[in-house]
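=== RUN LOG ===
request id: a7f3
mode: sequence -> structure
chains: 1
length: 214
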Amino acid sequence: MAGIGILGAGRVGTDLAGKLSAAGHHVTLGTRNPGDTAARTAGPDPRIVFADQRTTARTTDIVFNATPGDSSPDRLTDLHDELSGKILVDVSNATRDTADGLPGDLCHPGSSLAEKLQAVLPGTHVVKNLNTMLFRVMTAPETLATPPTAYLSGDDESAKKTASGLLGDLGWKPERIEDLGDITTARAAEAMILIVPHILRRHGFKPLAVSLAR
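=== RESULT ===
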């Protein structure tokens, strides 16, 4: 099994860490304060290692970006050397929030967070994935009444194949994984997030995903 690093120890990062660890992967959760994060994480999985973000990026094979999307390029540029030659699975959204804290606009209209990350990390294989849903669905797609879709964008076919395999470990069936194409297609996947706050305001914070129906 691969050594997987997750940058960001919020709800998204910890959920991903738990499910990937349960699937047998060696998971390192990267945070600014590893000791504090381990102490406040309820029922920490003994199989998950806590480390600072630089160590996490350096010592793992595949890295998930679960840091706040609006600041991800600055954060990850500092890890340029550690991420070189590795796969970076970007699950974040870069948005400007409205007064109620929900996304209101994109930080990179006409582009995408994934494209910005690929530009500042040219030696890294960036794959956009899992950004079109509430975080609980990322690790439990089977909980929705309608099977959700996981979209992939990236320039490297081998990296996307690896990301698809990890989706399988998270519970995603192959027929629900949609490869959109190269990294520029991430702008379409990221724009999908703008529909989500309108639905949440009307129906509350229930698990949902922006999916493809055929």
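=== NOTES ===
Strands lie at 3-7, 26-30, 49-51, 62-65, 87-90, 95-97, 103-106, 125-128, 150-154, 177-181.
The two ends are 34 Å apart (CA to CA).
=== END ===
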